[in-house]
Design brief:
215 residues, 7-stranded mixed β-sheet
């Protein structure tokens, strides 16, 4: 169901996007497919690793800040199979290009470094936020444009200002909710017809997390 390829975008040394603190645009990403998918959970699986467990926790934390998390779109599970699953790998080396992560089908690969335009290795920033970005692609979102106004969402490309400061925007939360149906959103009547349940307004319900470089 997740058989597509998405690539994360470029780095500070290439693009140098600058944003003011707390800047958020209402519509910085798109949902290319309007077809709805049904799933209650998505498992994030990996070879046993304490470090990867923390990375996955960071990614789940980023998406769980959407008020419609697990009600409008699937709950993410750390190391446990879900109704669907993604397989996570971490490469301690460089991607060899300007990407910090890839998703191919159900396989996500994260990198510690990427290459700038001069061939130098550049740190990729928060692993948890990079994984959250790739999960956003699996959920159906596209990369945000390289603009200052869109520099702080989860679907933003890495820049000088956001390696540890991206967060889910209300617009990203809303779009993901449109793409998915969960078992909390549908009910079947006596005739077997499925009905959608009403959805509450989408907001960010928790405060922005503290900086967590290890994730």
């Amino acid at each position: 169901m997740l058989d597509w390829i998405f690539w994360t975008g470029g780095l500070a040394a290439l693009f140098g996007v600058v944003a003011s603190e707390g800047a958020e645009a209402p519509a910085c990403t798109e949902l290319p497919s309007t077809s709805q998918l049904v799933s209650g959970t998505i498992g994030l699986l990996y070879e046993p690793s304490e470090r990867l467990s923390r990375v996955v926790e960071g990614a789940i934390d980023a998406w769980s800040r959407c008020s419609n998390y697990s009600s409008d779109f699937p709950r993410l599970l750390n190391g446990i199979p879900g109704d669907q699953s993604l397989h996570i790998e971490y490469d301690h080396g460089s991607s060899g290009n300007d990407h910090c992560g890839t998703i191919v089908g159900r396989k996500v690969k994260l990198f510690r470094f990427a290459r700038d335009s001069k061939g130098r290795n550049v740190p990729c920033g928060s692993r948890g936020l990079n994984l959250a970005h790739e999960i956003g692609h699996a959920l159906g979102l596209e990369d945000s444009p390289r603009t200052a106004a869109c520099d702080r969402g989860l679907m933003a490309r890495l820049s000088r200002t956001n390696p540890f400061h991206r967060r889910a925007s209300p617009h990203e939360c809303l779009l993901v909710g449109r793409r998915w149906l969960t078992f909390a959103e549908v009910e079947r009547d006596a005739n077997g017809v499925i009905h959608h349940l009403p959805r509450p307004p989408v907001t960010l319900e928790r405060a922005e997390p503290a900086e967590q470089p290890d994730r």
